[in-house]
Structure formats: C-alpha cells, structure tokens
Predict the structure of Chorismate synthase.
Amino acid sequence: MNNTYGELIKITTFGESHGLVIGAIIDGYFSNKYIIEKSIQEKLNLRKPFTSFFSTQRKELDKVKIFTGVFNSKTTGCPILLLIKNHDNKSLDYGNISKNFRPGHADITYQLKYNYRDFRGGGRSSARETACRVASGALFNAILFNKGILIRSYIKRIGFLKINFNYWNKILNRFFVNIFFLKELKEYINNIKNSSNASSAEIVTIVNGIKFGYGDPLYKKIESIISNYILSINAVKSIFFGINFKNKNSYSIKDEISKFGFLSNNNGGILGGITNGQPLVIKMLFKPTSSTSKSIKTIDNFFIELNSKTYGRHDPCVGLRAIPVVESMLSTIIINKILKNKIYE
C-alpha cells in the first residue's frame, strides 16, 4: 500500500475505520511555527460525522491530539504525530457482510489483491481516513493565508438539484449544516435518505492568490498533481479544470491577454501545466454513497451469488462533508510548491 503523499513535506496516514485510532505523521514541516490543537480541531469539526440529520449518525468526536514535534505550541522541526481516537465504531453492523462483497466498495478488490480484508466499515478504504488528511492540511492554513492564498469551495449540485451560488456566498462555504435551511434542498436530501438511496454531488473549488510558475512540464503538470491528490479522495470519480466545454464553442476557450493581464479565465488558471497567476478553478464529482440498506445482488468469498444489505450508518450524500478534505489536499500541494519553487522568497 502507498499511504504517503507530499513532495517535501510528506504526510503518512494510518489507521482503519473501526480500529482504535486513526492518525497522521507529518515529516519535513517548518520549525518554530505556532501550532495549536484548537485550530486543527476547527477544520476537523467541519468534516466530522453527526453534524446534522443528513450525515451519517456515527457519533465521532474527531478530537485531535498532537503527540510529537511540538514544544510550547511551536514546531521543533521533528516529525509531528497526530492521533484521533475512534469512539463509535459499531463493528457488529458489518457482521452480515463479513463474507459478502458490497457492490461499489473496495471489498472485492482488496480481497483479490491482498487475500485478506478488514470488513468493518471498509477498513483502510473507508472515508474515515480523510479525517487524517483534514487534520494534516490544517497545519498549512495560517502560512497560506499570510501569503494571500485563499481556498474556497461550494457545492454546485446535489444529484439533479442545482444550488444557487448566492447562498454559498452568504455562509462563506462553511458550516454546511446551514444549507439545510433551504427548504427545497432539505426535502430533496430527506427523500433520498427515507428511500434508502444516495446522491452524487458536484463541488467547485476556487484558489485565489496563486502566483505563476507552479507545475513542471510535461509529466508533473500542476493539474496532473491536483488530479492525483483529488482522485485519491474516496468517492471522487471525475475532475475538471476551468470552463465546461460542453457549454462553450471551440473558439471561446482561449484567454486573451492585455498589458494588464488576462481578459478571461476559461482555462482555470493553468496553461501548459503551469499556473498563470489567475485563480485556479477546479470542479469535482462525487459519486453517490455505495452503502444503502436496499437489497442488492453480489457474491460471497466462495463466489456464490446472493442478495445482501448493508446496515451500517452512512451519508446519503458524501459530498456534503467533502469540502474540508478537498481543501486540505490542495493546501498540501500548494505548500509543497511554495517550498519547491521558492517563488515567495
């Protein structure tokens, strides 16, 4: 398995959905930087489960604890160890599928590749692992903010329901539970949940303050690196940069240039795999949650066909808690590019 990401600052995550703990080791981080658990916790609270009726009802505190690499609230330059305990892991919910493969999950691929698997909530393949990414990415927020880099995201669409962008401007794309004050959206998610179905979600992220020069042609283009990181997030099935070509003719994607700069941003801030100084515009599609309580055809470890149900607690739309994960992965990419390119020195 490959459990490490990052170029100069490397992050290794560990732990399983129903194990004792999950966590991360951050190696190569700056020394003499202030870090407090409270700032990391604020980001984790945006991702943690049981924040509303419309997320999984697994009641995890997601309380982070720093064990190494920090002294008197400042980093020492040594590896930083972050731990999060699992509290509400009801492994018995998965007893009925211990020998069955859940369609849409990594059960069958893990079994075929490793000849063994942790069936409790998907083990290592569970989206529970993304809490480690959020906690790690939170270390970079203050540094990026001080350099004028701002990462903001919003949910553009849930299933067939398009969300007005003006609502997201009002709530600053945070505290997602607030979106459920929108009656139409609340009813839509409620119907999905009550019918034991799940919904997809489209998320748009805009990164302001990015200077030119990130990315290396030809095989380490900035969009290639971003795609690698974003597609590693559970349930992400596609990613797109800039405009949607389906709604544009072939002559409108070129960004004209004046002496004052670009006149448009159809390419989403990237040309030739290198950032051009404009805001990055990234769109991602999250698939519907694979686990529902509906009976569905599958096979067991002996390749016998049967019908199976998943009784665990799951989100009707995983995209509703995905924004902190997306932004943490982007933060990791950007902080590594700052170090590598030394543009800001």
Q: What stands out?
A: Residues 171-178 have pLDDT under 50 and may be disordered.
